[in-house]
């Protein structure tokens, strides 16, 4: 028994039984059929059934599935890991968060196909909608983040446990870790690292905040989607929360976002790492109050992410439309603008609100695409 048993990924000795349970799960089979078709599913799952560990499963099943899905969708996926001394070096990737499923899935795919290996993934228990989802993610090195904790004392206890588990993964040298810079996605794409995340990560490893975080070799990671398939869902949620401050997403909403993100049009997608922040935080004055230290470190992570964004014409068009000017017009054509405007209207037409506030919805939609560029320009100036 281990203190991490309730949240950790499955161990090697558990792998064969848990894999068999997954491959025999009818709901999982139906989900696979809808994703890649029954014939490809049979071929890939036959191969998966012969895997004896997570490395084989990811190389022989997960990578082919993701590759076929990207090809089917016409998605162009690129990456730049040149800031890392080694793609296999131990680190915690902290990134912006666009898509519930694809952000860590595509990162794992890119690491493996570039000579690395899959990493540990922090996944909220609110997304474990079906038993097979938990089985799938824990087979693939994911560990569970409990979102619904009743009391403050239980929350603190779990935060310490989670922090200790992440430190244990990194210190063991087994694999890297990915975690989003905030709880949930930044629906307006204004990507800022939450102090609470760094506070949790620093709970393990001693009282020295800087030393504790340095032990994780935090590496900022920017994820840039040309088009976000869930943009209309995120936009709709803004009005729902505006009109009803008590609105809370249901599990069905999460499932719809997962399906839409996986299957929808994304265009070009780029992953890029900034340099590990160890050297940046090394020179911090450790006598400063804890919260100031954490805010300073969060700022370093944010600048790393913002400076590594891949900027697309749609980001520049959205900024010009939002600000009602042509400051970015030199970077796109009239055809680019027409394509984006038509895309926006098509996405907004999917919104099913009884009384849609179209001016509000268009503004929120444009902010979603303009904010990455605004943050990128600030980061490059600083």
Considering the chains and any ligands shown, give keywords for the structure:
single chain; 7 strands; 7-stranded mixed beta sheet; 382 residues; alpha/beta; 16 helices
Outline the secondary-structure elements.
Blueprint: H1 15-23, H2 26-36, H3 38-48, H4 54-73, E1 76-80, E2 92-95, H5 102-113, E3 120-124, H6 131-139, E4 142-145, H7 152-172, E5 177-180, H8 195-201, H9 209-214, E6 218-225, H10 231-243, H11 251-263, E7 268-273, H12 278-282, H13 290-307, H14 313-323, H15 334-348, H16 358-381
Parallel strand pairs: 1-7, 2-5, 2-6, 3-4, 3-5
Antiparallel strand pairs: 6-7
3D structure, described in words:
By secondary structure, the chain is an alpha/beta fold. 54% of the residues lie in helices and 9% in strands. The chain contains 16 helices and seven strands. It has helices at 15-23, 26-36, 38-48, 54-73, 102-113, 131-139, 152-172, 195-201, 209-214, 231-243, 251-263, 278-282, 290-307, 313-323, 334-348, 358-381; strands at residues 76-80, 92-95, 120-124, 142-145, 177-180, 218-225, 268-273. The protein has a seven-stranded mixed β-sheet, sandwiched between helices. Strand 3 (120-124), helix 6 (131-139) and strand 4 (142-145) form a beta-alpha-beta unit. It is globular and about 60 Å long. The N and C termini lie far apart (49 Å). The mean pLDDT is 94.
Secondary structure: number of strands: 7
Q: Report the portion of residues in β strands.
A: 5-15%
Low-confidence stretches: none
SS-based class: alpha/beta
Order of helices and strands: HHHHEEHEHEHEHHEHHEHHHHH
């Amino acid at each position: 028994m281990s203190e991490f048993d309730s949240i950790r990924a499955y161990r090697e000795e558990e792998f064969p039984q848990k894999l068999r349970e997954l491959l025999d799960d009818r709901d999982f089979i139906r989900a696979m059929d809808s994703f890649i078709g029954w014939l490809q599913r049979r071929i890939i799952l036959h191969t998966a059934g012969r895997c004896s560990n997570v490395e084989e499963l990811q190389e022989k099943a997960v990578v082919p599935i993701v590759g076929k899905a990207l090809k089917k969708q016409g998605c162009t996926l690129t990456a730049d890991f040149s800031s890392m001394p080694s793609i296999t070096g131990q680190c915690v990737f902290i990134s912006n968060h666009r898509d519930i499923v694809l952000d860590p899935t595509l990162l794992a795919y890119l690491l493996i196909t570039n000579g690395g290996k899959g990493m540990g993934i922090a996944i909220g228990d609110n997304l474990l909608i079906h038993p097979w989802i938990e089985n799938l993610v824990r087979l693939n090195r994911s560990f569970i983040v409990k979102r619904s904790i009743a009391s403050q004392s239980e929350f603190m206890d779990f935060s310490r446990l989670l922090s200790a588990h992440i430190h244990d993964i990194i210190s063991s040298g087994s694999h890297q870790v990915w975690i989003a810079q905030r709880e949930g996605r930044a629906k307006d794409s204004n990507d800022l690292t939450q102090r609470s995340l760094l506070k949790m990560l620093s709970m393990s490893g001693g009282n020295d905040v800087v030393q504790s975080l340095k032990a994780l070799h935090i590496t900022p990671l920017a994820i840039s989607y040309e088009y976000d398939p869930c943009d209309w869902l995120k936009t709709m949620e803004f009005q729902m929360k505006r009109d009803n401050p008590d609105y809370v997403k249901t599990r069905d909403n999460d499932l719809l976002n997962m399906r839409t993100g996986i299957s929808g049009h994304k265009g070009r997608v780029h992953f890029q790492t900034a340099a590990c922040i160890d050297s940046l935080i090394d020179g911090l004055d450790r006598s400063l109050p804890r919260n100031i230290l954490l805010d300073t470190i969060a700022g370093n992570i944010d600048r790393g992410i913002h400076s590594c964004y891949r900027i697309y014409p749609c980001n520049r068009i959205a900024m010009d439309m939002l600000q009602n000017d042509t400051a970015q017009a030199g970077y796109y054509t009239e055809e680019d603008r027409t394509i984006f405007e038509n895309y926006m209207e098509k996405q907004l037409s999917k919104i099913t609100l009884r009384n849609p506030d179209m001016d509000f919805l268009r503004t929120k939609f444009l902010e979603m695409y303009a904010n990455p560029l605004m943050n990128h320009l600030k980061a490059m100036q600083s």
